[in-house]
Amino acid sequence: MPSRAARHPRFIAAAAAFAAAALCAVATAPPASAQSSVRYVALGDSYSSGLGAGSYTSSSGSCDRSTKAYSQLWANANDPASYVSVACAGATTGSVISTQLSALSSTTTLASITIGGNDVGFSSTMETCVLESTSSCVRAIDAGEAEVANVLPGELNNMLGDIASTAPNARVVVLDYPELYDLSRSSICIGLSTTDRTDLNQAADGLDSAIQAAAGRHGDTFVNVRPNFAGHEICDSSSWLHAVNILDISESYHPTAAGQADAYYPAFSGVVG
To answer: Which pLDDT does position 2 carry in this prediction?
Structure first.
């Protein structure tokens, strides 16, 4: 037999109201984080490993993977189901294929990469431009641009094709490189000549165009970071790029921690959420 309380109309009405509120709370509760199913692998060269940002993990050795790299910042903010960075300073398209693709699998849902600069001799070109004459610098840049035009497209195709085969369910995000110099301030900026700087910026534009074209051919997502570095290039008062760093020469011409956090990270997160 029902209790007196259960038969009381006011009790019945209150119970009904409570049940309705509980159902509404369940229906409107926010879903679990959309990122919880993301399995993310960061690939690439020093611009992805975070060389120049400091705070390098000892386990990464000469790969110089930084806890301040854009991929780690994104993982910290989004708590994906899994995250690993195998990006390594000095990486080329060939070394990505031979040493980094093993981190990918059919369960990988997101991959990011910066690549191409080392394939066309970025480091040796910068060394020539810093240590030798303008004419030597221009010749080195011309040689790199020939590589970009004639060799790099095939190398990018091979690498991106292998990424797609190894991680068929992954969204692949290909980020480019910034222009190094604010040419509007070159006349008051010590170091390289304006001719050197102009040619280096143009070479970076050509490299980025080749990377964008390759990403397009493979249906990958291309991200242009150059607008985020505007006003923060070498020669600007608050540069997010190292000029020649005599304390650690390897960091020269790489993004600082601010370059990773305020340029690469927002550019990446802007397309992946």
So the answer is: 44
Q: What is the rounded CA–CA span in Å between residue 56 and residue 60? A: 8
- Residue 46 known to be catalytic: yes
Per-residue pLDDT tens digits for 168-197: 999 999 999 999 999 999 999 999 999 999
End-to-end CA distance of the chain: 57
**Model-level pTM?**
0.87
| 179 neighbors 204 (Cβ within 8 angstroms) | yes
Q: Return the CATH number of 34-272, one of 3.90.1300.10, 3.40.50.720, 3.40.50.1110, 3.40.640.10.
A: 3.40.50.1110
Burial class (CB within 10 angstroms; exposed 0-12, middle 13-18, buried 19+) of 224 = middle
- Residue stretches of the chain with pLDDT short of 70: 1-35
Q: What is the DSSP letter of 263?
A: I
Residue 254 known to be catalytic: yes
- Residue from 37, 46, 59, 232 carrying the catalytic annotation: 46
Boundaries of every domain in the chain? 34-272
Q: Which of 186, 232, 239, 254 is catalytic?
A: 254
How do residues 222-256 score in pLDDT, each as one tens digit?
A: 999 999 999 999 999 999 999 998 778 899 999 99
CA–CA dist 92, 4 (Å, integer): 80
